[in-house]
Amino acid sequence: MASGASGAGRGRPSSSASRGKQGGRATSAAKATQSVKSTPSVKSTPSVKSTPSEKAAAPRTAASGSTAKGTKGAKPSSAPVPAPLAERFHRYALPRVGDGVRHWLFKTEPEVFSFDDLLAAPRQTTYWDGVRNFQVRNFMRDHMRVGDLVFIYHSNAEPPSIVGIARVARAAYPDHTAFDAADAHYDPKSDPAAPTWMMVDVQAVCALQPVALPTLREVAGLEAMELLQRGSRLSITPLTAAEWAIVERLGRAT
């Protein structure tokens, strides 16, 4: 689920765009000793919901007629789609290297869906629905793969903090909430035959000692981190391997 940032989404989005059921507010520190049995450890430099209340960004360029994934026999979407990456994200568009893992940060409002809620979910897995921002949609659809690592960030918290690690457990597929008139994320313009909006599944890996936003702003090496840029409101953003390593080290410090 996404939290109140532009491009919200999440298997249980935050605020207006967060997932439907939300557990109570998570404590300032997610259960730091819990981890997913099936994923005993996280590689040092490789590693769950998007911000639901995100306003859809106006497309900048026409789409190139690609077919939506996960919909058998779907016709090319007529919905306008912007370029895959805005200029400021070009540095993340390099070919995958090594194990091919990319790194991401997903925002969620803890009162809507917290990392503790993810840990309590069946198989510690959920879908990240509610994304209604083209740039964030493109991140999920075109740039995420199973196995990518995710920091879960509690937005609208005091203080906002990175509290856990998750992994992408299922590649992008149509977000069914866009077709449900009773859902807060309903989009009457989204065609089931050529879906506009996508989501991914995420699975918890382990909790971290909370790394607060003020701390992130003071750490050398994170100056270019998208979360810290003025005006950055996307519910999902990419990180470099170096940024990931720095933050993970902070979250694992005792």
In short:
By secondary structure, this protein is of the alpha+beta class.
Count of β-strands:
6
Q: What would you call the structural class?
A: alpha+beta
Share of helix, binned:
10-25%
Please give the alpha-carbon distance between the first and last residues: 29 Å
Would you mind describing this structure in some detail?
Strands 2-5-4-3-1-6 form a 6-stranded mixed beta sheet. Helices cover 13% and strands 19% of the residues. The model is unreliable at 13-48 and 50-83 (pLDDT under 50). The longest helix has 12 residues, at 241-252. Strand 3 and strand 4 (161-174) form a beta hairpin. It is built from 4 helices and 6 strands. The chain is an alpha+beta fold. The chain has one domain: ph1033 like fold, CATH 3.10.590. The protein has helices at 115-120, 134-143, 213-218, 241-252; strands at 103-108, 125-128, 149-154, 161-174, 198-212, 236-239.
Write the layout of secondary structure elements.
Elements: E1 103-108, H1 115-120, E2 125-128, H2 134-143, E3 149-154, E4 161-174, E5 198-212, H3 213-218, E6 236-239, H4 241-252
Parallel strand pairs: 1-3
Antiparallel strand pairs: 1-6, 2-5, 3-4, 4-5
